[in-house]
Specification:
single chain, 342 residues, 14 helices
Length: 342
Amino acid sequence: MKVSIPQVFWGQLTDTVPPVVEKNLEGKTVLVTGANVGLGFEAAKHFARMNPGKLIIACRDQQRGDAALQSIKKDTGCEKVELWLLDLADFGSVKSFARRFGEQEQRLDILVENAGIVPGFKAEITRDGWESTLQVNNLSTSLLALLLLPRMIATAKTYNTTPRLVVVASEVHYWTTIGPEVIDSANPWKLFGKDKDYIAKKLLIRYHDTKLLNIFFARALNERLRGEPIIVNTVNPGYCYSNLSRNMPSIILMLDKLAKWIFARTTEQGSRSLVWAAIGGDEDREKLRGAYVALCQVSEASDYVLSDEGKRAQDVLWNDLIKELTVIEPDIRQIILDNLKD
């Protein structure tokens, strides 16, 4: 599928967002990252109203997380909500979070990986040595998903259920590709995330690229989960009011504010698609595996994603991702061997 910028904005004005889908989540554990503001916060509130066994909101900041926690409890009446701290710009934080989860929690039914950032005018490098947008949106998001995967698979088998992993992507993936200079390089992720010249050249479309990488990750993971009762998908919430653009250069930020005033949906409206990807579509679950969800329905990803070129890029990037994540956390290799198929 090809989607132009005018088509996106026209759809923002004319498409009707379906009402939030509802389900009884009694006994189930739900985890939402980036849940103190925006889409993650609104999605967490929707889940809180569905009687979850436990709802964990993962946030980077204690004070903001506490405020979100109290707001969710007050607005929904749900007392089974917990705040866990998670900083995706720090691999150590991701590993500690996953270790704690493995030690304390017996099940994980829904994981919504919503946390993400947009780069500013200059690239920022994390303490781990990676460009921050790539680390937060992709490396740490993928690391967390894989570290929690054994608990999701165990949940499926123990409780006879079908857990879901939802990665928040975007329609901006339609407007980018990953070039051969990356795919054919000796170390694709290092070039993409550590080479200063490459980062500077591609910074303006950095966010677009990270959302494309989210889709590649979900599709690659789904292909290797053959036979396991786990649904992995990505979701496009649409163009919504949020704090996501706060790091943009001032001139772009001004244009973004104007565009939001004219075209943007509310964060609550956008969150409905996150919730649908996590609990909707039961009438045909098979269509949800590896799917790209938009407006609370399975949609078609970009022509590039679906092409032979895109499939090759997806496989190359998956293999190199696992290599890099194994350096970050050696347990990843055993998780892959125990739970996934080539």
